[in-house]
Design a protein that fits this description.
The chain is built from two helices and no strands. With about 50 residues, it is mostly helical.
Length: about 50
């Protein structure tokens, strides 16, 4: 958990260097994580199973 907090702080700080508005990183950070997950899934041939 502590690493996650430190990482989020670093991301917020880097974003704040490019904008005067307070950073809202939830959506951009989530999008970045999901983009990487989608690439990984394609690379290994994984797909989401159908819903029950």
């Amino acid at each position: 958990m502590r690493i996650e907090i430190q990482s989020r702080g670093k991301v917020e700080w880097r974003i704040s260097q490019h904008s005067s508005a307070p950073p809202n990183i939830k959506d951009p950070l989530f999008d970045t994580i999901m983009d990487g997950a989608d690439e990984w899934a394609t690379l290994i041939g994984w797909w989401e199973p159908p819903a029950d």
